[in-house]
Amino acid sequence: MKHVVVIGGGVVGISCALSLLDDGHDVTVLDPGAVGEGASWASCGCIAVGEVVPLSQPGMLTKVPGWLIDPDSPLSLRPSSALKLLPWFARFTANSRPSKMREIAVDLAKLNFAATDDFKAQMVKYGVQDMLIERPVLKLFEDDRDKATMGAAFDLAREMGCTIDEISGAEAHEIEPAIAPDFQHAAVLRDWSFVADPRRLVIALHRAFDQRGGKVVVTAGTGFTRENQRLTGVTCADGQTISADEVVLAAGTHSKALASQLEIALQLEGVLGYSTGLSDPGVDLKHTVFYPSGGFGITPYENELAVAGTIEFAGLTADPRWRRADVLVKRAHRVLPGLQDKKASRRMGRRPFTPDTRPILGRSAKMPNLTFATGHGQLGLTLGATTGGIVADLIAGRSPQIDIAAFSPDRF
Asked: PANTHER family per the record (predicted)?
C-alpha cells in the first residue's frame, strides 16, 4: 500500500482518489474550494462521448478573429492575456489541418468510447446510479450556412464511430415542443447523455470517498518536496507538508504552474465558462439542446434549467464577466421562446485546455512517481471515471487497457 496525495478534488481528482482507494492505497485529497463547485458545476453536465473532434475545427477557426474582438462572442480573449496566449493559439491553429484533426479524433475516441460504461460502473459502485440521464443531445442550426460550419466535424465524428442523425428543425420541435419551430436544421447526437446535477454528483463522490476512509484536506497544493528524481511530499497553502509515495496532479488550471516547479512544461491554458441556473424556467425540456452559433447549451437538471457555455481566455485571478452569462440567457430565448429567467443563479468555472484538445494523462520521464490527470477541457465530467481507472492502473504498475501514449505530459 502506498500513500498517494491527489492535488485537486474536482470530478477528475475525486474519481482518481476513489479508484486508488479501491486499489487499497492510503489516499489524501487536497482541495481548497467548496465541494462540487468547480468547473463541472458551470457546465452543461454532458457525458459527451461523441465529442471526439478537436476544437480547432476549420469552421470554428474562420469565426475566431471576429469573436476575439467581440466581448460577448462565444470565444473571447481579454486584452491583458493576448500576448501571453499567442504561442498557445499558434499551436491550436496548427491542429486544424485535416490530418492532425483525424489523428486527435482517433486518440480522443479511445477515451470517450469507454466513458459511458466507466461512468455507469462508477455510479453503481457508489450508489448514485440515478445520476445518469440516458437521452441524446440535440444541436440546432439556423440555416444551411450555419449547418455547414459543423459539416467536417460531423463527417469526422461519424468516421470515428459516432452516431449523428441529421433532422429538420421542425422535427427537433416535435421532439422538444419548447424549441422554436423555425430552425432549418438540427442534429441528434445519439452517443451523448447528461447528468441530473453535476454538483450533487461531485458531492456524492466525496461522500463515498469519506465513507471508505479517504481523507480530504481543505487547502491548496502549492509545491513539492523531493529527493533527486522522486517526490517525497506536497507543500500546502496552510503551511503543512504532506508526505507522499505517489502524487497525482489533477489541479485543473493550476496544474501548469505546479508542473513548472518540476521543470515540466505543459501547454495548458485556463478558460472561463459561464452557467446560469434557472429554477423556474417556465418550459419543459427533456434533452440537452446546443445552439452552436450562440456558443451555449441548455440542460434540464433535476432542480433547474442550466444555460451554459462560452470560452473566455483570461488570467487565473481574473474576475468573472457576468455579462457573458447574462448574454447566454438572453440568447437562450431564441431557442426556447417561452423561457422565463427571473429566478436565476450565475456561476463560473475555469477549464484547463490544451492546444490539441487532448487531456494530459500519464507519467513524465522527469518525475517517475508523479501522475498527471489534467487538461480535460470540456471533457472533465465525461472522462472522470475513465481517468480514475487509468491513474489507478499506472500507480499499481498495470498497463491501462487504453493506449495513453498520445496524452503524455512529455509530448509538449
From this structure: GLYCINE OXIDASE (PTHR13847:SF289), SARCOSINE DEHYDROGENASE-RELATED (PTHR13847)
